[in-house]
Amino acid sequence: MIMVHESGHFIQARRLGIRVERFSLGFGPRLLSYKKGFTEYVLCALPFGGYIKLAGDSWDDCLGEPYEFLSRSPFERAKVIFAGPALNYILAFLCFWLVNLIGYPNITTKVGELMAGYPAETCGIAKGDLITAVDGKSVKYWSELQEIIREHKTPQVELEILRDNKKIRLSAGLRQKMIKNLLGKEQKINLMGIKPRGEAVLARHNIFEGFVLAGRDLFRLTVLTLEALARMLTGGLSVRENITGPLGMFFITSGAVKLGLSAVLHLVAVLSASLGIFNLMPLPVLDGGHIFFLGVEKLRGRHLKQKTEEKIGQIVITLIVTLAVFVFLNDLERFGIWEKMLEALGKIKW
Q: pTM above the 0.90 mark?
């Protein structure tokens, strides 16, 4: 994902005729390096990011040559900066598309349990029934059924059910309930009072359906991520419970690998889109911050003083490093690593 991100900057810079002096994956000591033309390609020991070094990307070094970054217009510089997050977004879309083409496990609409005191208990639904349609709209997966029921406008639904290979039509009432959604917000939903049997099938889509569904998935993820960020900034959502770092990513990725290729691709899509969104936040040192400064430069007709940009950047870097330390320590506790370390130390005979 880092390689894709930096490749976005690299490709756009080269398209505009801006020289790229270094393309680095990782930081710290060099492990491998290769030079072709004006560009040195480097692999470093610490795999926690990457960067590209553009010719003339600081005011002290810029000589005003056309191949230098700062000699270009604010709009051209913004195109180079924006290309990184944009390519992350394209990667996320392609991964979602592949997930829909390869297939992923999806729970069927077969009823496994009736909840006591809810309408489904008395309307004629039985365990083992397969719900095939709601109000004439065909449903195949539990997620589709859940979405229709939760957002239904009337307190009654018409169901088509398959029981012992026979089609049955019946009406079921709905009961409203207040729940907390993924973002911790209270939300009123409809419930019929059924639970799934847990029977899963492989959901596959053709190339055109997969394309549309990938766009839908990416849009929903973007909205959810932006809402989550907004709620964390305003204190409506716990930062501690909803942010993870390299340790957390290791555990999440390990779990996804065990589930198969579709799970890995889905995880890459989520992380790549999140990386693109995070980088577009208007904070100095991030791509969004650089674009913000370019906007200010365009409005003022001249760039900010380098010392001003550096001071703002230092403050933000301090905040980001503080957040990184907090996330790392939180992951140690969250995934039980801190406890295991203390247990291991306790067993050592000093």
A: no
